[in-house]
Amino acid sequence: MRRVLMPMVLAAFVMLVSSAGARAFELTVVHVNDTHSHLEPCPAKLSFDDQKTYVKLGGWDRLKTKVDAVRAKNPNVALLHAGDAVQGTLYFTKYLGKPEMEFMNLLGFDAMVLGNHEFDKGPDVLAHFLKYAHFPVLCANLRPGAESALADEVRPYVILEFNGERVGVIGLTLEETRVISRPAPATFADAFETAKQCVAELEGKGVNKIIALTHMGYDADKKLAASVAGIDLVVGGHSHTLLDDGKSLAALGLHSGGPYPTRVTGPDGSDVYVVTSWKWAMAVGVLRTVFDDAGHVTECGGNAVLLLSDSFQRKNGTGEKVELQGAARNAVMDAVVKSPMAEVVGPDADADALLAPYKKGLESMRNEVIGRAAQSLPHIRVPGVTESGQDLPQGSMIAPIVCDSMLWKAQSVGLKPDLALQNGGGVRTGVERGPITVGTAYTLMPFGNTLMVLDLKGAQVQKALENGATRQGGAFAYVAGARYTVDMNRPEGERVTSVDIRRGDRWEALDSEATYRMVTISYLADGGDDYQVLKNAVGHRYDTGFVDAQVFMDYVRMKKTLQRPESTGITFIPAN
Q1: Which of 197, 360, 400, 575 is 20 to 30 Å from 161 at the Cα level?
Q2: pLDDT digits 0-9 by tens, 105-124
Q3: Number of helices and strands in the chain (H, E)
Q4: Is pLDDT at 45 greater than 70 in this prediction?
């Protein structure tokens, strides 16, 4: 049995099993992070036998089934959430965190650390939805302020007890939250120094097994493990990183960010293990760790497990998605069984019952008017003539506004972007003159892409635009904060003849050696539409967690009325 000695953490799931040795103690940490209000399963693409297969991953109903199964096989369990439980779907837009907390109560989380997106609506809204949490919520480096409602809702750490064994869990959040979200007047102290103080306090209380539950990103987690003595495990979030054994993700057509778990040498020479578990509850980490009597880790292993529904689809000859049957389905099921990182999981009835009234409440919200369009804003993927015969020599009238919304959002949270880039295929339709609704936004951008911020050299920006000019179709690039000329009479790779970046009221020619910060969508940042230059970019790379449709909605609410742009920023010279 697990007993909470100090109610201070949210989102930790630990499982204990007896092991060989006098006082060996086995702990299984079950963990998720960056679930971002994705309460329902998410559409995704995996590869089976090198064939693209459309699946659904996650959903809190399946997460509960998996958590229950792990608990059933282990005598002591603790469940951890590494932050950003909210912000990303209409569930948070409408209900402001209540259903997320209720689902976490249903699953029996032991602790959660605050992520930056918990602060997006300000500390008062955060404090309000945390009142629904029946588990400890942690953030040791938060300085909420004397009058803040958060002072009574958030604690620095918690001590969990399993049949006499005590485990300390410290919550740490990235300090940049102060500029990428809205925590004011709350501030954040140095996470590493705070961790050292908390470790000393816990050790002073006789705790020799310590987990850092963090929302700082995978790279920062590894630095923490190497810098602060006394930490045994780092369970992290923020970077949306998926880890594996070096081969399992590639077999599924996914990218690995590193090994699960990642072993780091601590400052005292001990092994420290770092884990994280992707995003949106599409995967759950299950980490089994054995400690000796002195609190040293003697064994550590596990996996992040993809939670699959039992639906598998592929496109037929006409491009229509059809359900796999017979031998094709059996082959996929066999591949799932053989993979240590994939599992078909059924839904939990209690979780489905909890979701039902919230899901029904979203139906009316789709008709909510958020603004209006002063003129029609037609869409075309590549400049030219639409199917209805309308001539759009500068291209889409709505895609540049989508880019404007991306640039505005990144600017508003202090990310200092220079330009935004959106592929024409990522915008699905035009917008008619008149009211713009919530449903309009989600019809316009239905894929749930998040905004990504990348640092690129000017030459890479040019190459990205060339990719759009070469592939055309859905890959064609629309921009904000930039303008460019594309000549379709020139050879592929040489069609973009000029690029300028806006600097206040003036324009500057793109410098191939200078560094520019681009905001784009996760689909393109991951190499979609062959934007390999974005996928392979090194340096600063940050998934904001902001969903494109939600960003567009916020932008429309701010602008109130959308006007057709005088210029899309594109001078398009068609082929002769």
Answers
A1: 197
A2: 999 999 999 999 999 899 99
A3: 16, 35
A4: yes
